[in-house]
Amino acid sequence: MGLVIEANGLEKAYGSFKAVNHVGLSIETDKIYGLLGRNGAGKTTLMKLITAQIFPTNGAIKVFGEEPYENSKVLRQICFIKESQKYPDNYTIRDAMAVSKSIFPNWDEDFASSLMDEFRLPAKRRIKKLSRGMHSAVGIIIGLASRAPLTIFDEPYLGLDAVSRGIFYDRLMGDYVENPRTVILSTHLIDEVSNLLEHILVISDGQLIIDQNAEELRGMAFTVTGRAPEAEAFLSGKEVVYREPFGGLLSATVIQSKYGDEQKQAEACGLEVTPVSLQQLIVHLTTGKSDQKGVMAK
């Protein structure tokens, strides 16, 4: 499988602050990636580096095998839908679709029209007059109908209700199956998109702390709960990413070892064992309450 993005030692500094700090990653063709992390972690900066909107301070990045900066051949293959995407004040929804059609070689007019119907968008209305949810829907339609070989969505759902978000996820997956391409989805609604994601990238304080196949990551951790003495005895020597004492009890989230027998050990110690969702795991790894970090980055 080929690579769409290759980054080595990638950094973006603003004075002494490193928004992206020595990131190395490889993003393959025809996969859906989740780019996850807290606000201010460096996700949007990384996406701007990928799409050549800013220059790196150090390191190198290639997109489709070439440097992306001032490279129209590369940039025409990228569709980047940002949070609160800006459009000219006089643009109607129809204008935005017409311009997108002229930009993206793989644009599907029929698909765009059907999505506009599903999201109930008034084609003649000016974008600046739209609700936040409708504004987000415009970006989603452009991202999906562009069929760009590299499509990036940065928090695309703001203002959308649950039904509209469901339409987005369903159409993204349905069209991806019929027209594979590389999709990067940056979102905080991790559990909502969990089943869409094939590979997980997690950024924390500008560093890549998780770079792993989603299927391997799911179910990797579990939570044990029980009396503090028994729990502490079980946790000794284990990789603990979160712990929360309450009263005489202790709850802790543990990463399974390659042997995978920790859950049986916990049950034998009289501890309650429960699964951990992907969102819970990411939260635990990025809230600063972990005993260890970075263990799942390549």
Give an overview in words:
The protein is of the alpha/beta class and 298 residues long. The chain has 2 domains: 3-216, Rossmann fold (3-Layer(aba) Sandwich), CATH 3.40.50; 220-275, 2-Layer Sandwich (Alpha-Beta Plaits). The protein has helices at 43-50, 72-75, 93-103, 109-118, 132-146, 162-178, 190-193, 214-217, 228-235, 262-268, 278-286; strands spanning 3-14, 17-28, 32-36, 58-63, 78-81, 150-154, 182-186, 199-204, 207-213, 221-227, 239-246, 249-255, 272-275. A 6-stranded mixed sheet has the order 5-6-7-3-8-9, sandwiched between helices. It is globular. The two termini are 18 Å apart.
Q: Provide the helix percentage.
A: 25-40%
* CATH topology value of the largest domain: Rossmann fold
Number of strands: 13
> How far apart lie the N and C ends?
18 Å
Q: Report the sheet-strand fraction.
A: 25-35%
Which stretches are low in confidence, meaning pLDDT under 50 for 5 or more residues running? 289-295
Class computed from helices, strands and strand pairing: alpha/beta
The secondary-structure element order is: EEEHEHEHHHEHEHEEHEHEEHEH
Indicate the CATH architecture of the largest domain: 3-Layer(aba) Sandwich
Number of helices: 11
Give structural attributes:
298 residues; 30% strand; six-stranded mixed sheet; 2 domains; globular; Rossmann fold; alpha/beta; 11 helices
